Amino acid sequence: MRGVKPPRSRRPASPQAAPARPRPPARDATPAAPRHGLARTLSKLGLCSRTEAARWIAAGRVAVDGRIVTDPEFPILQGRHRLALDGAPLADTKRLYLMLNKPRGLVTSAQDERGRDTVYRCFDGAGLPWLAPVGRLDKASEGLLLFSNDPQWAARVTDPVSGPDKTYHVQVDAIPDAALLARMCAGVVAEGEALRAKQVRPLRQGERHAWLEVVLDEGRNRQIRRLLAALGLDVLRLVRVAIGELALGELGKGAWRELSAAEVTALAPAADASAPAAR
């Protein structure tokens, strides 16, 4: 009987490497340039307000890369286009930062549809470039008001979360007691809106009137007047005396001055912690 041959042993097949996946194309690490409408771009350059820029564009005064553009929303990539106004090349204007002691009776607006005097009357003959108010004071209020042609800085100053506190001296038509001052800080609801002060302290008082120092850490329309009215008090005078550490000081009514670079940075530190260039 013939012996049965044992089956041949086979070498295990060497495992084949899985096919390599194609690598995705390398992404450009350079962040995309911000895209804004043409009118907003001119405003961000510190040349004018967005409304005024729209007028320039509609009038055919603005060219992009050598061609007249009449659409205020024409998309512009920052740093990628050549802009011109009336044939003259445009560039980022020098930033300017001012403080004004606003007199009572002036409207915080470039133009008033009712023909009332505006805060820009205080700059007559100064030869300043276009400047926008940074925050507002109503017509009956007075004191420290900032102006700049730097919209990014202005946004940081007026930011309700990270912006600096504002300090006011307020004359009221009564002698408030400690309980009423505590209620100002606790807050009230007026017309469906919560209103409060961060800090309140008495300054001085007469027989019927008193002066209070009120600190706000948010900026709502006519906030102090509405808060006090809800508590039964009328405001006789309201003067903003400080924004952050910047004090009104001895600056005369209707007078203005430029801020130092240190003051500009202290009011709104830049994201890179570098001070903006102030004159």
UniProtKB/TrEMBL annotation:
Bias (Basic residues) ranges: 1-11
UniProt keyword rRNA processing, yes or no: yes
Chain positions covered by the region annotation Disordered: 1-35
CDD domains cross-referenced by the UniProt entry: PseudoU_synth_RsuA_like, S4
Enzyme class: isomerase
EC annotation from Swiss-Prot or TrEMBL: 5.4.99.-
Catalysed reaction, written as an equation: uridine(35) in tRNA(Tyr) = pseudouridine(35) in tRNA(Tyr); uridine(2604) in 23S rRNA = pseudouridine(2604) in 23S rRNA
Xref: SMART domains: S4
Family of the protein in this entry: Belongs to the pseudouridine synthase RsuA family.
Protein name from the UniProt record: Pseudouridine synthase
Domain of life the protein comes from: Bacteria
GO terms of biological process kind: enzyme-directed rRNA pseudouridine synthesis
GO molecular function: 23S rRNA pseudouridine(2604) synthase activity; RNA binding
Gene3D superfamilies found in the cross-reference section: Alpha-L RNA-binding motif, Pseudouridine synthase I, catalytic domain, N-terminal subdomain, RNA-binding S4 domain
Keywords: Isomerase, RNA-binding, rRNA processing
PROSITE patterns, per database record: PSI_RSU (PS01149), S4 (PS50889)
UniProt xrefs under InterPro entries: PsdUridine_s_RsuA/RluB/E/F_cat, PsdUridine_synth_cat_dom_sf, PsdUridine_synth_RsuA/RluA, PsdUridine_synth_RsuA/RluB/E/F, PsdUridine_synth_RsuA/RluB_CS, RsuA_PseudoU_synthase, S4_RNA-bd, S4_RNA-bd_sf
RNA-binding S4 domain ranges (all copies): 36-104
